[in-house]
Write a structure and sequence with these properties.
elongated, 4 helices, mainly alpha, about 0% strand
Length: about 110
């Protein structure tokens, strides 16, 4: 009875939710640490006037990672929802991902 209710989405699997939260936390932590590190090194190099091209490259990479982190979180959610076979959340999360992609495309038009 409980397995059938779980499969139909009437009750949630706590371990699946915990795994999703941990994975999202890891993605956000990595994105924040990586972007902060690159931005700090690039800023220090810029202020020291040391290898300005490399400093600019580090700053740009830090900004790209910072901007891409929320999208990576959504992609992680889609993958986990597919693994859980939670099709309602797969569709909803894909809509969010399409909205993010649409905003990036609209920014370049």
């Amino acid at each position: 009875m409980n397995r059938d209710m779980l499969r139909r989405g009437l009750i949630t699997d706590r371990s699946a939710n915990a795994r999703l939260e941990v994975m999202i936390g890891e993605v956000l932590r990595f994105g924040t640490i990586a972007s902060s590190t690159l931005l700090a090194i690039g800023l220090a190099m810029t202020l020291a006037r040391y290898r300005s091209e490399l400093a600019r490259l580090l700053l740009e990479a830090g900004l790209i990672i910072l901007i891409a982190t929320p999208a990576a979180r959504v992609v992680t959610s889609v993958i986990e929802y597919i693994r859980e076979r939670d099709w309602v959340f797969v569709v909803l999360t894909l809509i969010v991902l399409l909205a993010l992609g649409g905003s990036v495309i609209a920014a370049y038009l």
